[in-house]
Specification:
The protein is mainly beta. The protein has a domain of about 45 residues. A hairpin with a 7-residue loop joins strand 1 and strand 2. Pfam families: YdjO. It comes from Paenibacillus endophyticus. This is Cold-shock protein. InterPro entries: YdjO.
Length: about 70
């Protein structure tokens, strides 16, 4: 079955962190990375990089509801 250009996801340059260990293939998008920047698999150091990836839809966090007033 052939695919057309319309079916392919649009790729955009995305900031990522990838593991410095050549034996480890782990990487994570910058927006989902933990603050300490340690590899989630081998716990080694991570390096900033770029990769062309499909865009993700980040849903906004729901705002806490304000309690209704009795007045």
């Amino acid at each position: 079955m052939a695919t057309t250009e319309d079916e392919k996801p649009k790729l955009k340059a995305t900031k990522i962190f990838k593991c410095k260990n050549p034996d480890c293939k782990a990487w994570v998008r910058d927006e989902f990375a933990a603050s300490e920047q340690a590899c989630p698999i081998c716990k080694g150091p991570m390096l900033r990089s770029m990769r062309h990836l499909p865009a993700v839809q980040n849903k906004p966090k729901p705002q806490p509801r304000k309690p209704k007033s009795d007045y």
